[in-house]
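Practice problem: Nucleotidyl transferase AbiEii/AbiGii toxin family protein
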Amino acid sequence: MSRYATAVDLRRALEARLRQRADESGTDLSRLRRVAVFDRIAARLSAAERGWVLKGGASLEFRLGARARATKDIDLALPDGPCDGDDLREELIETLAVDVDGVNPLKVWRRSMPLRSRRSRLSWPSSSR
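Answer key — structure tokens:
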């Protein structure tokens, strides 16, 4: 059970903590926000039965921290080969909706569909800025 009564309370507390860390470390606040969301995504992916693989800039940012170039997206792969893009998207949505830490589930919305990849928008549904 979360120690915050609502998702808005969690968002406010997280935002205050991130602002404090940004002020103390001199790190860009937007980068800290992205890393916090990426961390929650990684927690859900690692708890999933299917072997999601985090790759690209996000994996470097987890490994190297502030020494890595900031990234705005997460690249994922599955070790067991190709599958239908729509099925994969649905599986990702289900994976991100799992409550692994008492925090509200993440929601995914389709944004665009480039030829070789799929892009989606991700947000915490109950948090307003």
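Discussion: Helices lie at 7-25, 29-47, 57-64, 85-96. Students who identified this feature from the tokens alone can consider the problem solved.
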